[in-house]
Design brief:
Length: 255
């Protein structure tokens, strides 16, 4: 079986969890990891995460020169770093490397650069790459079309130190045509990984659609799903919402 080779940007709390999921998947090969600092540079992600083999060589971002993506060519780059990460790996698109970005918030200039990569290679961007949230996006739009006069509120809950309104809640508000300032409610308590609820209020009943991430591994599983789907696709900009909508239409099981 031909493995899909992966390069990972980001090795923080979420990046490490994603790397573990990648290393556990026999259909994928984690070839390297790029992180923002020199911490653990030239070590192997696999060793740091408890595996007894050498996979996922770690590089600091300032070691990535013009020839890096030629010497270390991979099929797919998965980005869990930060808005500026695209400035480093944009040149990999010239060699046809696919890009999966799971960055929750981009600066405008970086977003423009990311979207432009879809003209050169297959690009999938999803600010929340979990399967459940993207199903929630689609299901909520279907329900709104059935009950267009329902009152709708979005409630998002995250860990105590998360700043600002979640990007997922903003996306939910946008696709449902809601005023973010009026209809999105944020709760910050404890160590909640992420919970999103859409409440549809009707005169005699209430409908609640809920998605909860109970472990950051959900992001890794979503990234794996995206990478496998993207492998071999033609150039273009795709999204998880697009993939799952297409599967709905074709009655294709996600797993």
């Amino acid at each position: 079986m031909q493995q899909i080779s992966i390069g990972l940007f980001g090795f923080g709390k979420t990046g490490r969890t994603v790397a573990t999921e990648l290393l556990n998947d026999p259909e994928l090969s984690l070839d390297w990891v790029v992180r923002n600092t020199h911490t653990d540079a030239h070590k192997f992600a696999s060793r740091l995460l408890g595996f007894e083999d050498d996979r996922g060589a770690i590089y600091a971002v300032d070691e990535v020169d013009d020839g890096f993506f030629v010497r270390n060519k991979v099929d797919i780059i998965i980005d869990f770093s930060h808005s500026r990460g695209v400035r480093t790996y944009a040149r990999a698109a010239d060699a046809g490397t696919g890009i999966v970005s799971a960055i929750s918030k981009y600066e405008a200039e970086d977003m423009d650069m990311l979207m432009a990569l879809g003209e050169k290679t297959a690009l999938l961007y999803s600010p929340n790459i979990t399967l459940g949230v993207n199903f929630l996006l689609i299901a909520s739009q279907i329900l709104q079309s059935i009950a267009p006069h329902a009152d709708i509120e979005v409630v998002e809950e995250h860990f105590r130190d998360k700043k600002g309104v979640s990007g997922t809640a903003k996306t939910l508000a946008r696709v449902l045509g809601l005023d973010e300032a009026q209809r999105v409610n944020s709760i910050r308590v404890g160590g909640i990984v992420g919970r999103h609820e859409i409440i549809f209020g009707l005169p005699n009943q209430t409908i609640r659609l809920v998605h909860e991430s109970i472990n950051r591994a959900a992001f890794g599983q979503g990234a794996i799903f995206a990478a496998k789907w993207l492998s071999g696709r033609p150039s273009g900009a795709y999204s998880m919402e697009y993939i799952i909508s297409d599967m709905f239409r074709q009655h294709i099981p996600v797993y």
